[in-house]
């Protein structure tokens, strides 16, 4: 018992940073593990099944189209298929509109899923609060969501960033802190439930508990999904060999709207951001569907309409943690030069259960006949940020490579989440918030300057534009 206490308490006292010379990065040796990395027991209230026969549960929404005028609402009914209808409207309890969805079910080993409903609700007004109701009898449930503002280069919007969440007490702490952040949508970086840490029928059960666990936020705002290795669920000993089976049944994405051929990679536009979701665990080398799609999607990006270009993926391309070291290298070799060419603002990844942020560095000059194999400072490169610290049962990845590489700006092995608060076309405020003693502690933050609009010629153009509009206002 004493030993356990020591193990729990000791890391909390370690708090000093090692600084290096010049522009060198910071390795924070603060490690905040908060609670033991075990899943919350099944009978805990965070997994409570809503009351009533066949009551809708595991409610979650995601953006339903390219530009944010639609949502996909998903839920599960446990006892019978029930209705796939959504009633909705812009005032509470008054639902003038309806939408009809689909229902499906699947088996995983001997687990039989509940009835999984997906309903597209489209033709929505921008920047509007909608109320919605699922089910029609006395076990119906009501929620609400707010649509994003219309696509506009200067419209503010606040995203939350969460990865590798799981269903432990640390996961709950991350969720609760995120919900205080005031962010309007989550960019989720893959590894949702960690149900694949279980066996046989428990895998499906832990997908269900996770769906109920995150409903407190996923029912009210869109979560933009990307898939991680824990979604693959290749489990031949149970006869389950179809990759991403549970994930794809339960979580949908609006992939057709961006002309993608798979729900695992796609893009959306939201407010002033163009968000591209990539799949680390689907083929991506030259000529594969994902590669061909991305080549086209980059051409569709219009920084005059959506100045912010954000990429989500599971496996980080720049990672100086010993955990998952070099796993992103193959994708880096294939895609990094495009990220530089298209001036991507920021690349978010998960997978490594720690936090790390890079400086603007690139490593695109290396080839197998040249010797230029070191990342170099590059003003055109994105910032790479790993936020794999949602709090799952595998625990923290506390061993960073020593010395800290030049590209690494800040790294710390603690649980938490990030927010990206876009202010206008040139400025966004970024924060990483550590979960600390039940408090949310802003730990790493900086102002992100837009990569496209920060070029001198565009800045001059922008000044002229504002001058004109001010003069315009004065003369009319
Ligand atoms: C889906 O549900 C129906 C009706 O309850 C059931 O007959 C069928 O076996 C289920 N299918 C799967 C794949 O579990
Ligand atoms: C390999 O890299 C070197 C140095 O950057 C460059 O000069 C050369 O053209 C590259 N080779 C090919 C085949 O791209
Ligand atoms: C953009 O936002 C930043 C940060 O709030 C502010 O300093 C800047 O003046 C804004 N730019 C314009 C053109 O409004
Ligand atoms: Fe992972």
UniProtKB/TrEMBL annotation:
Signal sequence, start to end: 1-24
Keyword Translocase listed: no
First-tier enzyme category under EC: hydrolase
Reactions accelerated catalytically: a phosphate monoester + H2O = an alcohol + phosphate
Record-level Gene Ontology MF annotations: acid phosphatase activity; transition metal ion binding
EC identifiers of the protein: 3.1.3.2
SUPFAM superfamilies, sorted: Metallo-dependent phosphatases, Purple acid phosphatase, N-terminal domain
Annotated ranges, domain Purple acid phosphatase N-terminal: 56-147
Keywords, in A-Z order: Glycoprotein, Hydrolase, Iron, Metal-binding, Signal, Zinc
Domain of life (superkingdom): Eukaryota
UniProt cofactor(s): Fe cation; Zn(2+)
UniProt entry tagged with the keyword Iron: yes
Entry-linked Pfam families: Metallophos (PF00149), Metallophos_C (PF14008), Pur_ac_phosph_N (PF16656)
Name of the protein described by the UniProt record: Purple acid phosphatase
